[in-house]
Amino acid sequence: MWGFLLCHLVALAEPGLNPKKTYEYRYEGMVNIGRGMPNLVESGVRLVCKVKIIGVSAQTFLLRVSNLNFEEFNGIPGKNAFDASPKLTKRIAAELSKPFMFEYAKGRVGDIRTSAEISDTIVNIVRGIIGFFQVTVKTTQRVYELEEFGIHGLCQSTYANEEDANSQELSVTQIVDINNCKKKAAIYRGMALAVDNKLSKERGDSVISTVRYVYTVKPTVDGGLIKKAHALERQHFSPFNVKGGNSKLQLVLLSVTDTVVTPAVGPMISRGNLVYKFVKVLAQIPILMKKLDDPVPKIADMIKRLAQANIYQTDSATSEDVVVLFQLLRVTSLENHEVLWKQLSGNDEHRRWLLDTIVEVADARVLKFLKNRFKAGDVSANEAGQTLLIAFNHLAAETDLMEMEFLSMPFSKSHPMLWNTVVLSYGSLVYRYCTYEYDRSCPAAVVQPLLDLVIDGLKRNNEFDMVLALKAIGNAGHPSSIKTIRRFLPGVSAAPVTLPARVLSAAVQSLRHLAVRDPHSVQDITVSLFVQRHLPTEIRMLACMILFETKPPLALVSTVTAFLLEEADMHVASFSYSLIGSIAKSSTPDNHFLSTACNVAVKILAPKFGRVSYHYSKAMHLDWFNDDFLIGTATEIFMLKNAASYIPTEIVTKGKFHFIGKILQLVELGFRADGIKELFRQNIQVFNGHLSYADFEAIFKVLQDWKTLPGDKPLLSAYTRIFGQEFFFADLNNDLIQSVIKTVSPSAGKESPVWSMIENLQKGMSWHWTKPFLMFETRYIQATSLGLPLEISKYYNTVTTITVNAKAAISPPLTDRLGQLLTSDVSLVTDGFAGFSKDQFVFHGINTDIFQCGAELKSKTVVAIPWEFSMKMNVKQKTFEIDLPACKEETKLFSLSSCYNRFDVYAVSRNIEEPSRAKMTPMMPDSVEANKDIEPPKQRYLTSGQKVCAEANIYGAVFCVEFEATRSHYIDEYPLYYFLGYTNFACTIQPVQSNKPVDKIHIEMNASLTKYPVSVRHLLDTLQKLPKLCLQNSDGSIRTFVPSCTPPQALNANSEPVFAIKVLAMNGNTKPEGYEVAAFYTPAAQMDNTQLIVSQIGEEANWKLCTDANVDKVRQEQLKMHLRWGAECQSYEMSMKTATAHLPGSRPTLKAKIHWKTVPGYMIEVGKSIEKYIPGMAFLLGFYQKHATNAKHEVSASVVVFLNVNNRSNCRRGIPYSIEKVNKTCSFFPLA
Q1: What is the pTM of this model?
Q2: Which runs of E-coded beta strand occur in 498-642?
Q3: Better pLDDT: 362 or 322
Q4: CA-CA distance, 352 to 360, in Å (whole number)?
Q5: Distance between CA atoms of 763 and 990, rounded to whole angstroms?
């Protein structure tokens, strides 16, 4: 009996709707985006309506919306109100008033159906309304957990029930943990190349979201009737401890009536279940709201306008419009693209803009467009390579992308660099495709074309083809490629492998992405390679490098450690030990467990390898990580050598960026020196490895024999990877060098390309290049309870412009060979521009195709370098002249500032129907007074500004650096608020009132002097008339040093003028003013002396600077320098002496001493600052220091080197800098 009653009570409470009833509810949904702090502006929207639910059948119900009102908010909560949006209300109501059908039984929402013309945005809003009815009620349990579908996906829900004894109503609270949904209604775009790291994610996530539903359920004979319900959804940016926004929903039952007539409905289509659906959501860029109808003429007009605006220099005012162009291109069809190509390809500027921007369509349409261009052959190899590279790497991969046949098209192989780009980019495309669509279950068919390429290269024994294909396979990182890679690795392959070291290296490095995707398989391979002592040293070290990329467990690290204790190859031992030691100091989350294992290994290996010389191979890993912001960086440098040569076989540098659970591999550069190493192995005779003068002389002699290498043997190979994807590699071989030398050789004639360039330059040449480029677009979009998409996105767009106009004249003109240029007078007149405008946008808020609301950060960086000058030169006479126009107007060379008004962060509201109502309000009010109600000390305003200028009155110009910033900063709690405010930083050149009018600035350089310049002769005459004012040597002790030679003694008949440079302000009616620099060299039997004299030129100018430096030829370890400046070099004076010594049985010593007679006051202040800085740095670097007192006006330092070193580390986690058989201590003597 009790069981029957219990089942009956459960049935009464279980939510249900009577198919013969009509239910009317009042619905209100509101979202606000802001920081949730007092007096900060927020934005939001509110939707209020009546909802009728009419029974159609036992499990089918009809939903209709009426009395709709849509409102927008942009202001300060509590001070401003929502504003009605009548036109947008009308548009939304037109769709919501149509019938929506949905299945419903026992608290579960099933299939949703609508007429075909209803937009996806409106269907998702309806999902938010219907989502209130998706609830599970269990009267037998007060607290219970369920995994169930909702608008956010398949998520974990926690329920709590409480019964009101008086009303006999049930209060049901449901908490949904959105962060841990198994099938979350969210999408990432633009982060496919960022590696997810579980350990990093455990320390924090980018967005934390929770939803709380509270229902009041009344048991009825038809089931539990939802009388009212409300929901609150919150988002937080966890690393910054900042609230991101709230969503509030409310549903109140107004009436329940009998259904008289069921409304008739027309044809309907299924729109899926309750889970939020993303359909074409990526087409809507969140930082703009434009009507996208009839896009083709808009695109054509915008390309023409942008091309014209940037025809000479970057127009920073229109650089943001490029993003609008991307938006328009994303709503066009392939047919539209072909129409645009026919319209614009005839003009070089328009053609380039179309090719550079169409890549941001970012789906199969752009690949089909490029396929048409390849088939038609109506683009150059250069155009095709640039466009394909960006298109492949910006794709939002879809299931039909792998059907493109670029690898088999003849045009792809028409140029070597284009073929390289096609193959490498295809590998990148496979990686992105598998990341987005199938993860580790990505079908093997997508990587098969690359596997076929590498096997074909192996059969033909073509080294270049094997390397190229292996690099592309490395880009792809497909697990099914492991079997093929094994065939190229000795001791791992089933068959014997005899391949060049370069191919083996490419094969090992092709495992780099698989180290993350399939670490166990990679560990088996790399350990097998590492323990084979007969393999090339380089391959074993690369295997070790990849092995530690897999983050091996303690047991595997212990195995490697035990093996290293028996290692005889010191390069392998040194490389492995330094790598393990560097990782042991790591602080990034991904190395948390590995660093512990490496610490144990270091303690075991240190007694044997702790003092290994830097002559051997090394690996270095440096990193830092901030747990509060969840941000960090890492840098790695690998230098691989072997016993056969001092020249490194390979050098690799890597940079990584850690950000909230993801690791982005920024830039990687690699160099191989196979040919150079072979050259040195065969030809070098005298080389002791100390990098002395004799070593450099031996190196130079060897390099002169580069022609002895085979034509196909590269001297040097280099590659570049960005975000872990290799996009460029090239070889410098014998044939290429000879080709370049032949082209620029003085004996080259009219057949040389340089000859044609010179002819064009004499006729007058104009060259212009503009490149719009979306550097990155990252977007994260997740569903909210209202059925609106919450988006966090970042955009970084740049427009780069280079313009060069030039015309040359050659006298006498060239007749038959390029060498005649060396004896001709050459003049050149040129003007141009180089610069860029970079726009960065960050958006957080609601982004739909009909309205947007949220927070937006905008910044703009502008670099502008214009030039205009004329030049004359004669190589034989070693003369060079440049004329620059005087500064007439202010020119910004660099600026970093906000885009609008005076603020960086805005609350934005936009809707498609009323563009004039768009609002972009600074989040921080314009003045401190506006925030006088804010309680101290929660908030403070930081305002700073500075302008520093360096005037050159003689030349009529001033260079200024200006900085101004205002910040709203909530102390300690909310570090993200530092971005609220105004920022401006600029470097400018401005005209300034000069002593005399300036027509132009004349620069003259002469390196064929035969006599002293006039200013120097005047100096010598003046000094000879003065008493002997020179400083004398001290009593012989090494405490002080004063050079004995003075300018009258140094500049004698043996002094050889080296060069002279004049920089003069010219005016046709007056004598020029400016400065002259002259350098002289005085050879002697025991000492070489060099002088540098800087003189001011003018009618009454007498300021000069005299520098005298000499090196003792007998004791090359001594250097002396004497510096004087002021009126005829007599106002101020100082000298310096450095010396090294290493007598048998003593410690190597380095001593430096500075002595001054008179110096300006600011130099004394700088010296005191250095004095305070040096002891602290000495302590940090592990130097020994002691204090002593110097003579007045003297400072000296001594570095003494001891034998038998111990390792020292800079700070806590610095660079271990062990030096073979030496240690360092240092004595510092402070100023008196």
Answers
A1: 0.83
A2: 618-626, 631-642
A3: 322
A4: 14
A5: 34
